[in-house]
Amino acid sequence: MKKILMLVCLSFFVCYGQAPLEKTSVILKNRLSSLPNDSKVLVWIFFKDKGNVLNKSYQVPGNIVSEASLKRREKVLDKSNLIDFTDIPVFQEYISKLQSEGFELNQKSKWLNGVSGYITKQDLDKVLGLPFVEKADIVHQFKKRVETINQKIEINKSIPNYKPSGVNSLDYGPSFPQVNQINVPALHSMGYKGQGVTICVMDAGVSLLNHEAFDSLNIIATYDFVNHRTYIGDGLGGHGVGDHGTMTLSLIGGNKPGQIIGPAYKSNFILAKTENTDSESPIEEDNWIAAMEWADSIGVEVTSTSLGYLTFDDTVAVQFDYTWQNMDGRTTIITKGAVLAARKGICVVNAAGNEGDDPTHNTLDAPADADSIITAGAVDIAGIRADFSSVGNTVDGRIKPDVMALGQGDYVAVQDNTTSYGYGNGTSFSCPLTAGVCAQLLSFDHKLTPIQIREALRNTASQSTNPDRHMGWGIINALSALNYIHAQGVNNDRPINPDNFILYQNYPNPFNPTTQIKYFVPYGSIVSIDIYNVLGMRIFTLFNGFATAGDHELTLNATKFSSGIYFVKLSANAYQKTIKITLLK
């Protein structure tokens, strides 16, 4: 890590003679050619390095991201290299210099080593002349295809598929068809409700966070990246409304028995407003990038994005659109961000888009083309692909979408009042259902990587043996995916049913002088971890207190113990479990 930082630092002192024109993307050049000199344009400015990054604080991973983020990264990265160049903050002196030249900052991206903001055509020339500026590009701005919603629907007990068949542990009400199609109730009955998992919903804010469907929602952080504030609701001088976010959040985490219950209603939620829904203002990709980096720093494990980016929000400048030919997994900036998130251990779930079918090419919305993420398309209750659901394949030949879930006729909370519901259509609704199942699987096994989750969903979906460009591997099956994970031996010491507490065998064993003690808690409980000698005498208490649901890990330091055999005992409620450990000095 130190070698990388030194190289980055040294590059700061190199003088570049690149002409400003050579630093401008073709799209930005074309855009600027139609504007007067004093017109402002929203651009990306990318830097060549990160300046003086030898600051010691940057060499301590915990100073850059949270412990939760580092723990998640351990699943996919070497423990000695949990942070890299992309995690180092953008050099503030560079930003200050841009601002002194007339640049109005909007967002910062450490992953991309750049900033977005507004600048006039004439000031841009001065900025591009700065030696530390690598290049400039346009911030793509888009319109999202409007999804339909039928509001104010009265609950009709005779609605087909309304009443659950068989015995279920929860009363799903009219939401039963959408979760039953993907076998969510089976995992709920087994105790997997997304507990212990952190999800970020990235959408248009939430217009009605006091809706009854959210009464038990555990929200740990919120931020509005459009208006730069923590409040994500409507009004108070901000741009955009969050009715769409209200609907998608209810699908993944809603919990109102008799009305709606989402797959991951016991998860912890981070809510990010990334979309400005004002008709005069476009969706902007830089907000999404900033939100993903923020969620990563907190420790997010699953993201649900019911937004897609394809059509430019300027009919005069349609030549600046992203097109289907850019859906190759490496071109659009938002796709690059999604891939980086997955590489850092985040399970990224994105809607495929609502652009329908075209037999000659894909109709995906970025970042649905990204590799390593899960792209969700939409089906109706009969399991038939919705005609609006976008199709693959990517330009580089990969099958997309990955999987399917209900996206036509989904029962959702709506913004009319705190008890109102309706039915909606769109891949925006199949996405949170899919993300919710990912959280359920992580509740079963927190060791799962994004790729392992995707493979489990793909290999157990309705057309796993014959995937295609219309439905990918097919409709997901949560129970089959869990059984697949268990059968593959990803974590064979975890039982299928999580009703009991678990005390895992320590590692290393034998040990000297430290060893790791890991245990699992199915629900928040008072837990005691005690050490006993061979005479049955308790000689040390390693932990005694409240433990949240999920896996926990403790370090036993036996420096003051004598060599020999000891016993570790877990006590919680009426459950007790003991393992033997060996200290060799």
How would a crystallographer describe the biggest sheet?
7 strands, parallel
How large is the count of helical segments?
Answer: 13
- What is the CATH superfamily label of the largest domain? Peptidase S8/S53 domain
Helix content: 10-25%
CATH architecture of the largest domain: 3-Layer(aba) Sandwich
Q: Gyration radius, to the nearest Å?
A: 25 Å
Average of per-residue pLDDT values? 85
SS class: alpha+beta
Number of domains: 3
- Unreliable segments of 5+ consecutive residues: 1-17, 152-161, 312-320
CATH class of the largest domain: Alpha Beta
CATH topology of the largest domain: Rossmann fold
Name the features:
globular, four-stranded antiparallel beta sheet, 585 residues, alpha+beta, Rossmann fold, disordered N terminus, Immunoglobulin-like, Alpha-Beta Plaits, 13 helices
Could you give a quick summary of the protein structure above?
This protein has 585 residues and is of the alpha+beta class.
Explain what the structure shows.
With 585 residues, this protein is α+β, with helices and mostly antiparallel strands. The protein has three domains: 2-139, Peptidase S8 propeptide/proteinase inhibitor I9 (Alpha-Beta Plaits, 2-Layer Sandwich); 162-488, Peptidase S8/S53 domain (Rossmann fold), CATH 3.40.50.200; 502-583, Immunoglobulin-like, CATH 2.60.40. Helices cover 22% and strands 24% of the residues. The strands form seven sheets. Strands 8-11-7-13-15-16-17 form a seven-stranded parallel beta sheet, sandwiched between helices. Strands 2-3-1-4 form a four-stranded antiparallel beta sheet, sandwiched between helices. A four-stranded antiparallel beta sheet has the order 23-22-25-26, with no helix packed on it. Helix 8 packs parallel to helix 11 (427-444), helix 9 runs parallel beside helix 10 and helix 12 (450-459) crosses helix 13 (478-488). The longest helix is centred in the last third of the chain and has 18 residues, at 427-444. The radius of gyration is 25 Å and the shape is globular. Residues 1-17, 152-161 and 312-320 have low confidence and may be disordered.
